[in-house]
Amino acid sequence: MGRLVSVGNVIVDIVMRIDALPEPGGDVIADASEITAGGGLNTMVAARRDGMEVVFAGQYGTGPFGDVVRRALADSGVTVVQPGLADVDSGYCVALVDATTERTFVTSVGAEGQLTRTDLDRVELRDDDVVFVSGYGLAHPVNGAAITDWLETVPPSVRVVFDPSPLVDTLPASTLSAVSARSDVVSANSREARLMSPTSATLAEAATAVAAAARGTALVRDGADGCWVVEDGSAPVLVPGFPVVAVDTNGAGDAHAGVLVAALGRGAGLQDAVRRANAAAALAVTRPGPATAPTAEETDALLVAP
Predict the structure, then answer these.
(1) CA distances (Å), 127 to each of 46, 51, 82, 156, 265, in order?
(2) Is the pLDDT score of 277 beyond 80?
(3) Exposed (0-12), middle (13-18) or buried (19+): which is 91, by Cβ within 10 Å?
(4) pLDDT tens for residues 38-72?
(5) Axis crossing angle, helix 64-76 with helix 41-49, rounded to the nearest 10
(6) What angle do CA 232, 233, 239 make, to 5 degrees?
(7) What contacts 153, CB < 8 A, 6 or more positions away?
């Protein structure tokens, strides 16, 4: 089984649960809050819980937020490549989760935005590895240039999975094009897919357009309805989701991505891997918090449930 090699960002999430966003200039009292490591950690934790070895190749800092990140990485059992930066702290994100379970983010960038090509050259890839690239990382100029350049050296035997993230419309066109072209799988949610293919009338058409810009394969996640799959230029197919009562959608895409990569790393076919990822994401949204990916046993149970 291959490893997930993440070049994404691990930052601190300051999560606050509210009834609704206040009007501009207004204020609101949170019903609950928590401070935890998040960002790219959630995808890595999801893959680990599904049985995959994980390597973290991103950058992180030193300071109060860096301490949270370092502890979380140590506790998660991932292999950490970088020594970290001594003169800058890790960044953080304020995540507002409202009563509809929708989430709104505001992020302050720290050490995770300073990943260089020299850092990436520390990564020793194996033929069966899966490199996971996030648009959150590409949005930082230093990271975007380094990752794009480094991907050109990644052997063809190493699969690349790209999640463009909600920041996809802010990425330089040249970066998005180059990373998509090297990606074996592009996995986007419905909003991201529409931004990547603004002329598409349906999500199925958007999935086809996103796949065409990559190596012929793309996924478009459509919440509880499931996930559109275009594989090797074939017609789009909707892999159904699993009906659940959502409590918190924060981290659902991360759970989907991590379990998708883990299943692909075990040799599963794409549609089977997507169905497993759909099940994991469904379980994740039934729990409050960003890192709520299920264990492999929990996902197995949902997959065989009547």
Answers:
(1) 22, 19, 21, 8, 11
(2) yes
(3) buried
(4) 889 999 999 999 999 999 999 999 999 999 999 99
(5) 20
(6) 80
(7) none
- Whether residue 196 contacts residue 163, with contact meaning beta carbons closer than 8 Å, is answered with no
**258, 47 contact by CB (below 8 A):** yes
Residue 238 has pLDDT above 90, yes or no: yes
- Give residue-wise pLDDT tens across range 107-146: 999 999 999 999 999 999 999 999 999 999 999 999 999 9
| Secondary structure of 114-141 in HEC code, one letter for each residue | CCCHHHHCCCCCCCCCEEEEEHHHHCCH
Q: Which of 252, 240, 242, 239 is nearest to 284 (CA)?
A: 252
